[in-house]
Design goal:
- The complex is a heterodimer of chains A (486) and B (304).
- Helices cover 31% and strands 15% of the residues of chain A.
- Chain A is α/β, with parallel strands linked by helices.
- Chain A folds into 3 domains: 123 residues, Fumarate Reductase Iron-sulfur Protein, Chain B, domain 2; 177 residues, FAD/NAD(P)-binding domain; 138 residues, FAD/NAD(P)-binding domain.
- In chain A, the strands form 4 sheets. Chain A has a 5-stranded parallel sheet with strand order 5-4-3-6-16, with helices on both faces. A 5-stranded parallel sheet of chain A has the order 7-15-8-9-10. In chain A, strands 11, 12, 13 and 14 form a 4-stranded antiparallel sheet that branches.
- Chain A is globular.
- Chain B has 2 domains: 96 residues, Beta Barrel (Elongation Factor Tu (Ef-tu), domain 3), CATH 2.40.30.10; 160 residues, Rossmann fold (3-Layer(aba) Sandwich), CATH 3.40.50.
- Chain B is built from 10 helices and 16 strands.
- In chain B, the strands form 4 sheets. In chain B, strands 11-10-9-8-12-13-16 form a 7-stranded mixed sheet, with helices on both faces.
- The chains are: A alpha/beta (486), B alpha/beta (304).
- At the A-B interface, helix 11 and helix 12 of A face helix 2, helix 3, strand 7, helix 9 and helix 10 of B.
Amino acid sequence: MAIRWLDRNETCLLPPEVRKKTFKEYDLGYTINQLLDECDRCIFCRDYDKRCKAGCPVGNDIPVFIDHVEKGDLIGAYKVLLKTNPFPAITGRVCPQERLCEGSCILTYDTVRKKKNKGLAVGIGAIERFIGDAIRISGIEIDEEIKPDTGKKVAIIGAGPGGLTAAYYLRKEGHEVHVFDALPYIGGVMMYGIPPERLDRSVLEWEEKRLRKMGIKFHLGVLVGRSITLYDLYKDFDAIILATGSGRGKMMGIPGEDLNGVYTAIEFLTRVNMMKAYKFPESATPVKLGKRTAVIGGGFTAVDCVLDAIRLGVETHLVYRRTRETSSARDVEWDHVAEEGAILHWLTQPIEIIGDENGNVKGLKCVKMQLVEDPNGGRPRPKPIEGSEHIIEVDSVIFAVGQDANPTAYEGVKEIQTNKWNNVDVDDHFRTSWKGVFAVGDLVNGGDTVVRAIAHGRKAAQYCHEYLTTGEWPENWEAHPKPWTL
Amino acid sequence: MATEKSVLSLLDKPKVVGKKQVSPRGYFMEIYLPLVANNAKPGQFVTIQATEMSARQPMQIVDTNPEKGTFSILVEAYNRSTVELVELFSEGEELFNVEGPNGKPFPVEKYGTVLLIGHGWGAGANYPIAKALADAGNEVYIAIVGGSRENIYCESEYKQLFGEDKVSVYTEDDEYGKEGGVVQALEDFINEKGQPDLVVFAGGASHGEMLAEATKEKGIKNLSLVPSLMLCTSGLCLTCRVKVGDKMVMNCIEGPYLDGNQVDWKNVTFRTGYYWDLEKESLEYFLNKLLPKLKRKKEKKQNQ
């Protein structure tokens, strides 16, 4: 049969005029016929473990679940996914697939010969999402196989993707699992960060029900480091997994950051996505961007802020010091927000936030940049163009310029070795320097994707289970020199 | 901070177990949550999200009862969150979420003579600190200040604990006690007893600002509760950022009691006012639209 290089099925999006007025999901995913047709495009590479599977941080057996779908067995496909990834409906939505599994699909790139191919990747993300959603809305309850109780207790700190994944796999091994989180909801960044228009909250609610049904205990509203200490938990539990992320907001250190109307991305997103400021005043938490806002940054978080700001009915400017091509967000996402009316300012560096006489933001002073070659061969560097200062008139500014560690849980715990970024050092088994304590996710690598945290969570659960079973811990623990490669 | 009891034995759902009105807008509420009751240290707070649609409201812990597993807060019903608490919750009702204890405990040391000035609800906030400072061997004096008599809280509690002569009461409208505000309270104290070694303040930002000007000028150490806006109260969002000297401090995990002489109070005052129009709208919406609906729902439920 001929290879179908180019006729990839694209998911259906709500039209810009409709989607910019609603916090409902705008990507509607595949229809059932698109799903079946897209599965037909997979050529089932025999060495898929060197291709799509290797491109997937959790190592999903992609052709295997596609095969199940083709045979009319969605439940089987879902079960294949669960072996490596407890949350396919989530990763199917939020993964940057084009640089992971789909970027390693032979139709577009031959990872073995290391050369580009002429086709478009199989829509793996949308297929994965369909499988997760199909089970979710089918009403079928998949019984999770849980091994008999081991009598061992594990405390997991942080209910984000890494923590929840570790909880899932440790519970399956029969351990008693308790998840602590400071916030009143599970999901971590998937709750406060990723907007509902990209990840419908009904997905999270369904996943929470599944986890609770498995017998995982959640303790929400407990800030480890203040409400209780790690030492308290160390006394009561046989193992601890730190999964507190690295989500502290960050600004740039330019003048005017203490004006009214200046937000970090996380403050803005938390107000809108977790505290539902878009339902104000029914929801009591306000957000106040004025008529116009500027989002600073060029990554996924900046896109999320732009999506939310537009949906609040605010004229939204995106300001980034590099170009669209060198930004870390997806190209197609810039298209989406531009269609929704966002005004994109590339090669523009903010240098000062201007306030009015009352201390409220009234403008963002910027300078134009040009890209110059990096003499060391790195990414081209932006350099200011002299005399190009100008002011973008806005009533608020949102900083989406990265994140810092939040060491509240392990600050002052001398048994745990941290690095110069205040993140936790681990070895290749996600063990920290303190016996029985593991760490996963952003607090290990400083900030990566949801699916990377899921990968950490599963591997750490495996190592933690081994530790709980054997009690073995290395005598000469050594920090992994490149934790971002884990 | 380490507790004797196992963590798991302290975890439960938060529930209102007592509510006592002490002034037209002031209420003491007792909340059951053993983790807070057992682990809270003086100066710490809880973040209360009363209902799923409520905002996250930081509230200072006034007193704890570890045996009963309860703690108390002083609620002065002035915004949506506090009005929701007193209007919607009575004994036995569960709160959506309470996070805590939160914040850095107050540095309880031997300072010498300490004057604790509480404005309005701040008198409640200072209460556990006053007790702890007295236990640590300090000479403790209390000034309770309010705009008017109805904002005077904890007077009898303080007097019972420290004696009448250690407690003075001020109202800005001269309705009750001596006339004057927080600065008057400090000046009177200095005139009578000399300069204190430490001033502790809790209350609104504008009062904190006035008091800090006086303590700075006189060179008196000042530890003040900074009533900044807060959101995540877990060290993430920077909503609560406060300038202290040339440093940016996250009030939720480093405060709420900070070096009052170093705090940029002007910035705190105007940043806390950013949402005043929306807060007003939110409260009106609650009182006119949500509350009648919720009350009808509750009555229906009771009738069934």
